[in-house]
Specification:
With 297 residues, the chain is of the alpha/beta class. It has helices at 3-19, 84-91, 112-126, 145-155, 193-204, 212-217, 245-257, 275-293, and strands at 36-46, 49-57, 64-70, 96-100, 133-143, 176-180, 231-236, 261-266. Helix 1 packs parallel to helix 2 and helix 1 crosses helix 8 (275-293).
Length: 297
């Protein structure tokens, strides 16, 4: 998904978040206080690169569950700011919500991106008191390449070379994962050399046929166990950038392992969608967080 297309997807998501609120009480005349938004928060410096996040905190005493979000853009484009309005809307639903930057390819190759994602979660957990976060109730959500990072956050435990920067004594574990059309089995791109050369090689440095190990190490399917956190996957059936076989394979592997996984195919949709479909899938994601971060059935 191009940066423009992703930004459009995110902006429509804001409208969906506002519209899809069937359980809201009727207006009483008192307008709820807006979330407090802190922008450009330095969460780490890794290999000389300063990394920032934006965080929105609901009004109230807390502690609140937290959702950490990662933008798309083929690991080489996009910005945390693409999700700035989204985190405000999520915060209005009673979550601390953050959107975090990560180093981009080709200047920074994998595992820089997952190092940064893990560092962002560690930072927020270490600052739980400051941001009114319930440190035991942190979930993650990502779109496309950001979905890939969210999945790796949820599924992979300690992996050599994936922890860098600060707060290394703090856990980066998350309680649940929402994945919007993220790549899950990167070896599949070896069968599509055009997509592989365009999207994979700038990030991973080599083709799959040249180095299968790095593709396996970077694939969420590699880390599936029965102890995986609950995962919700939303994926278009006509996605030509990240074919739905990625999510079907991951979903099956999670279910076969005895883990909790739900796959929602979005019929006829490509790499992203809008309108009523986006409103519906956004509500699906929010209900999932209600269940797994707020323990509401």
């Amino acid at each position: 998904m191009s940066r423009y297309a992703f930004a459009l997807f995110a902006s429509v998501a804001v409208a969906a978040l506002v519209a899809a609120r069937p359980d809201d009480p009727k207006p009483t005349g008192d307008k709820p206080a807006a979330p407090k938004v802190s922008k450009d928060v330095l969460f780490d410096t890794i290999d000389g690169t300063r990394l920032y996040l934006d965080v929105a905190v609901p009004d109230g005493t807390g502690p609140f569950p937290c959702v950490v979000m990662f933008h798309g853009g083929a690991w080489s484009m996009g910005s945390r700011k693409d999700l700035s309005s989204v985190i405000e809307m999520i915060a209005a639903r009673g979550y601390v919500a953050a959107t975090a930057s990560y180093r981009l390819a080709p200047k920074h190759q994998f595992p820089a991106q997952i190092q940064d994602a893990r560092s962002a979660v560690r930072f927020l957990r270490s600052k739980a008191k400051d941001y009114k976060i319930d440190s035991e109730r942190i979930g993650t959500c990502g779109f496309s390449a950001g979905g890939h990072l969210a999945l790796l956050l949820g599924l992979a435990g300690k992996v050599d070379g994936w922890d860098a920067g600060s707060n290394l004594e703090t856990s980066c574990k998350v309680r649940c994962v929402v994945d919007f059309f993220g790549p899950a089995d990167l070896a599949l791109y070896g069968k599509s050399p055009g997509l592989e050369d365009a999207y994979m090689v700038p990030v991973f440095g080599k083709q799959c046929k040249t180095d299968q190990d790095i593709y396996k190490k970077a694939s969420p399917v590699t880390y599936v166990t029965k102890d995986a956190p609950p995962v919700l996957i939303l994926h278009g059936t006509f996605d030509l950038v990240v074919p739905i076989v990625h999510s079907e394979s991951l979903h099956k592997k999670l279910k076969d392992a005895g883990a909790s996984s739900e796959l929602i195919p979005v019929r006829g949709a490509g790499h992203g969608w809008e309108g009523k479909t986006l409103a519906r899938t956004t509500e699906d994601a929010l209900k999932f967080f209600e269940t797994h971060l707020k323990d509401k059935k």
